[in-house]
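Entry 14. Two folds queued back to back today. First construct below, sequence then structure tokens.
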Amino acid sequence: MEFLQPAQWKRPKGYANGVVARGRTIFLSGMIGWDARGKLVSRDFVEQVRQTLKNIVHVLAEAHAGPEHIVRMNWYVVDKKEYIGAYKELGNVYREIIGRHYPAMTAVQVIGLIEDDARVEIEVTAVLPE
């Protein structure tokens, strides 16, 4: 895995501008903050992110992969201000579960998610080296 960062560009915080990887590709559908029984763990945004990231790690493990294999994350949030207001807490939760691995990431505010009480949904692409 190689992170793409043009030398003359300001270094991004918490994500990579691009990633090049070769190997077995793993695509995770949009994960939300529900438990193994399909129940949302909380209505709290940060707690939903915590559970969502845990769910991502659990699904990656099914392919014998870990957070270090993630090359891209797409975050869909229902409230941009809630997301921005939680930056510090999100950073702590992210490092607790994913570590200090920062793939290419996009965050998009959406009108709503299919699960009415979901505050965040995250898609992941990971690559296991050959």
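Second construct, same run, same settings:
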Amino acid sequence: MSSTFADIKTKVRKVTGRPSTNQLTEAELENYINDYLVYELPENIRLFTLRQTYNLTLSPNVGNYALTAAERNAYLSYEPPAYVDGYQIQYFQDEQAFFQKFSQLKYSVQIATGDGTPGPYTGTYSYTPIQPTTAIISTLNAGGGSLTCSDTAAGALTGDVIAGGTLNHTTGAVAGLTWTAAVPAGNAIYMSALRYVTGRPIAVLFYANVFFFWPWPDRAYSFDIVAYANPSTLTLDTESPELNEWVDLIAYGASMKIFADNLDMESYAKVKVFYDEYQRLAERRTLKQLSTQRAATIYGDANGYPWQGSYPYS
């Protein structure tokens, strides 16, 4: 039985009663089919076929990893368990729960004292190493107004300062700090920042499309987690979807989109009866696959869970 992109297009034209390209262009037809396949099908039903392992190589002294635009479009969701070099780690999606357990506090330290000039000033922040982009340096000018600056990922200082100041995130050394106004003699110059510790990560927070690891990696590690991928777009008439059994589901789904855009709700309702049947058929493979294994619980395995005594970091 043939199950190609061309077959799907033929069926959509039959179902919608649009056999001619004058009624529905080829480009429009392909867009309807791929829009349903890539954006709607995987959201309507999470199919076992779309489960993959997402892998990320962790770099030394880098704790936060933002998903690229391509990754945000390629994957629908991420689910535990998560592993670092094969060791299962705790997985969080609640920012509050993560930072309650792995608290990160800023400590304010006086790093220099005003001498009546804008600078340059030098000093050292003692709580190191420092998480990039978390530092704030502040003082008061002669009128009592605030002067502040912050650090960039590369260690440059920006804000109420003259370009050229730097912060060494490893040693905490501040150099070339020159304000845009004079700092009266005796006025304290304070700095606060988040520090980090290094080691093999034991926990990860996925929040705002960013993976936050704790502790930060002290060397390169391999991070793995289950991810649901988007189906591949069909481009050639000879291509087929991931599973041949999706052909009718895709065709009816695309047909419903065409009817909806034309406000033909009577035809939409008729087609939905067939669509629902093929959706149930598509789900059966996943349901059968899942039925062979008992749902995991925190009591179901004597080893390997971060909250149990056998875990190396307990």
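Quick look at the second one. The longest strand covers residues 75-84. Helices lie at 5-16, 26-44, 69-74, 95-101, 247-261, 265-291.
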